[in-house]
Amino acid sequence: MNRAILLSGAAGVLSLSGPAHAADDAAAVAARFGALEAVRDASISPDGTKVAVVNPVPTGTVVVVADLTGAAQPKMVMGMQAKDGRITSCSWSTDTRIVCFGRYIVKEPVYGPVTYSRVFATNADATGMVQLSSETNDRSHYVMQYGGGIIDLDVGNSPGSVLMTRQFVPDTQTGSRMGSDKEGVGVEAVDTITLKRRTVEEPRRNASEYVSDGHGLVRVMGVVAADSEGVLKGTTSYFYRKTGSRDWLPLSVVASSGAGLSDGFDPYAVDSAANVVYGFEGKGGFNALYSVSLDGAATRAEVLSRADTDIDELIRIGRDRRVVGASYATDRRAIEYFDPELKKLGAALTRALPGQPMTNIVDASAGEKKLLIIASADVDPGILYVYDKASRKLDQVMAVRGALEGVPLAPMKAISYKAADGTEIPAYLTLPLGSSGKGLPAIVMPHGGPAARDEWGFDWLVQFYAARGFAVIQPNYRGSTGYGSAWFQKNGFQSWKTAISDINDAGRWLLAEGIAAPGKLAAVGWSYGGYAALQGEVVDPALYKAVVAIAPVTDLASLKRESANFTNSRLVDRYIGDGPHLREGSPAEHAARFAAPVMLFHGDLDQNVGVDESRLMEKRLREAGKPVTYVEFAGLDHYLIDAAARTRMLSESDAFLRKALGLAP
User: Fold this and answer.
1) What is the DSSP string of 470-482?
2) Which of 312, 349, 319 minimizes the C-alpha distance to 151?
3) What is the DSSP string of 229-266?
4) Rounded to an integer, what distance in angstroms lies between the CA atom of residue 619 and that of residue 628?
5) Burial class (CB within 10 angstroms; exposed 0-12, middle 13-18, buried 19+) of 202
6) Which conformational region is residue 10 in: left (phi greater than 0), alpha (psi within -120 to 50 degrees), or beta?
7) In what order do the strands lie in the sheet with 286-293?
8) Per-residue pLDDT tens digits for 551-561
9) What is the reported pTM?
């Protein structure tokens, strides 16, 4: 297996170049780690000659096409200004036609930030750009938010057409024959060049999703339960079709537990050759992968399960999204390939790329003759490769994060520590390069979610603080996902006492082991992690000497109210729950207990956690006479996807921590 740098001259076009300053320059380090990844998404053309890369730039997002034959220089074919939104993903409908998904946020006067999405198509030479999403008109009853999504790139004998979901909006007029009363989500076959569209599935008011077989046939439909106002009840009923039939047959019902977990077979992908649908369902407290036949018998077969962790990801490749395996995470994420050829290839890639053990197939050309692969590690943000099966040649396309090329990164180690009740809590520990591992300034960094978990691999936030000399521990506290329903408990809000206790115990472990120097421990978190950092200070004001919270939840009752005008309000209400924990578990209700200084960051277009959460926390801390610094980013959402904003956040949080912990600048 050979390695060759195919597009060595493309880095300046496709990636953000890093500042040419000394490695110990604080501003330079923040700029390097704050730079956005150059590869947000990548796809390969059916003939395997071109790659389209979604590339964030300082002004917004661009789509760049790289010619793998070397016949042409990389070319920008589409762009979206940051003020208008961002492009998130692209696929190829033909060898020369690209389809991209864009989203943007509008601040509505009543509802606050609201997301809109649209699908666009353009040629690989930057000509012929059109919008594929249908639009509402002045007769429509409401504005269409969801612009649809691509569910199939192969529509039988219609090259260049795709299957798209569509949100139908009624536009009837009293006393008029014009318009239509169709409403709900349906499916259309849309020609990406001529825009000719044909309805494949009539809309249903409560239809939530459709699953195609990868060859232009819709085989599975999901329908949500909702009241007359459209408020979701928490169950989804799935139906399927037998081959050659238009009749829908019952498949399964997935019901939310209220705490965030669900019961029932949740279908994800159809294998037309085997005539089955793959999906996930619980087994012994852990998620397992099953297949169900679509022949009328609905025969169920277990495909993959474990008794220690959830099977949580389906591996699909190619234009038909063929199911080739599944994955799960223990100390590291592992892939189980069902396809013998890919299983062999995966092992060969691991041998060929020993420094990049995480190899993910992100796309494939027609017939899977060429594979687009990203290989990465904890100390390597990743390289985008193209693998040619015929020649067995592995060609490097570009670095995922060009700004970090040549920057030494710190290894991440899986560890565990004992919680107060004796439970072993899995975690990851990252120590600064060149350190003794003892007597360091240290950070407890709980993950967001809380229905999530940290995994082994590159983490730009962790690596920045490690580069600045901090030890960082990331606990997968009880309330995290991936470890089964018993570990998840009632989620990190309703079971906040257990979750926060586990997180604080990570800090106590750092101190007891001598990794953290006395008086040099801080908490840093994003989203729920920010909540946990703040609430950890409420529970034990003597533990941390500084707290940094990015887009944090600060008041559970306020978080519930944020969803009041949306269809998921009932689900959010059940997820957070009712009772004394609403006040007891809200940092903003206990500002007087804070002993450590606090720094807050938040984007004013955050839809996950409203910006008023941080504004309230700042207000309460100031009223209590506590030291607090608040930075608000205009026009940014929950993820702060902006290099300048992230650089500022890193730089100012670093300076804040160093001052609070008594460290040199």
Assistant:
1) -EEEEE--BTBSS
2) 319
3) T--EEEEEEEEE--TT----EEEEEEEE-SSS-EES-E
4) 9
5) exposed
6) alpha
7) 266-271, 276-283, 286-293, 300-304
8) 999 999 999 99
9) 0.93
